[in-house]
Amino acid sequence: MRKHICIIAVTLLTLGCQGFLDEKPQKSLVVPSTLSDLQALMDNELLLMNLSPGIPTILSDEYLLKEDILQSIAEPSERNGYVWADDLYESGTNVDWIGMYEQIFYANVVLETLETIERTQSNSVQYDQIKGSAVFYRAHAYFNLLTLFAAMPQDGVELEKYGLIFKESAAIENPPFRLSVSESYAFVEAQLQLAEGLLQEVNSFKTRPSKLAAKSILARFYLFQGEFSKAEDAAEYVLDRYNVLIDYHQIDPSAASTFIRFNNEVIYHSNTIDYLSSFIGEISPRLYDKYEHEDLRKSRFFNVDQSTGRVTFKGSYTGLFTLFSGMTTAELYLILSECKIRNGSIQEGLELLNALRKNRYEASTFTEVSFTDPTESLREVFEERTRELVLRSLSWYDLRRLNHEPDFQRILTKEVGSKTYTLMPNDLYYILPLIDVEIQTYGLEQNP
């Protein structure tokens, strides 16, 4: 099966560069033409379809790079992104941009091929699942791009024109086009809702989309843009049906890689695109010091070199050293907790927070958090998000959305050698520039 997937993937990448709809003498032999072919194409999870951008972790401040290590990094967007340099790409490209648009290309191939296959009573379940999966992958890719390369609705009308670049067809002769910010968010929402309606409730393969996965991504999507009632509804829908949390007392802290792949908290599995610095960076003391001694995550997420004091991360839910970026029940507990508090149900929100914390702290010393003030309650939720969702590309996501709230915004600083770099809340650097080749090829306007 793996060989079959790779053959299709390489073939389609070649066709994509030349135009998918170009006539080929043996086109019928290399282009997927059955439902099984299309499912195999989307099952290329390790190399393509289940990847999320890795640069948010570089842009954030969860780990540190020493000056000599930073200068040894060859990838411009990695080296420059770490210190928020103006010339991010040095006229080059960016693997996150390319990776997301490859996912969109493949999803478009699947959707366009489906139009040539008759949906029948006997194949309807498989047909709808494949269509829903393609719509899901495309919408998820666009959402990931939104968090990096587009303005947010909260940014104001002056940035409304800086929405996403869309490619609605796999055909090379159909050029991409740009939507406004509001149009971009409306499109992604509609596509996730469409996927939700087509997909099966659950899927035995956690790399494949399901209705619960789509609802989970919708909860993350609504939270990002401040639609707290919608985020609450989406998160509650999932947790009403699946709410398993791992008891960290049962996790061996001495294991080299602490968590197994596809563990019971995972609703949808994906991992970030690998950057070198995620393997060679050391955890920031600011982050590590947030874990109390009684916090079981401290020993299960991190290794400490006793001779140097260097702290490294080992707690990825990929079961490997690659970084997890999928959806978990724990994240949904945090989303629902935040939304309950914001929507006026403080005690319900804190009950959800304490239900998660009970599985993360030593039982003998565990005490529930209790607040009556919504601001203090939210602050505790955000602290818990920082501790729970470490190195999942969500720190930058939280920075962007909370920058618009003075009570919760943060100034980022990094020291490299003798230099100190600073990124202020709502700096325009939070909207990453488009890569030069897209601007030159399609005449697009650069981000501010």
Automatic annotation (TrEMBL):
Give residue ranges for domain SusD-like N-terminal: 20-223
Where does the record say this protein resides? Cell outer membrane
The UniProt keyword set, sorted, is: Cell outer membrane, Membrane, Signal
Q: Name one Pfam family in it.
A: SusD-like_3
This protein's record includes keyword 4Fe-4S: no
Which InterPro entries does this UniProt record tie to the protein? SusD-like_N (IPR033985), SusD_RagB_dom (IPR012944), TPR-like_helical_dom_sf (IPR011990)
**SUPFAM superfamilies linked to this entry:** TPR-like
Instruction: Report the residue ranges that make up the RagB/SusD domain in this protein.
Output: 329-406
Note whether Hydrolase occurs among the keywords.
no
| UniProt similarity note | Belongs to the SusD family.
**Under what name is this protein listed?**
RagB/SusD family nutrient uptake outer membrane protein
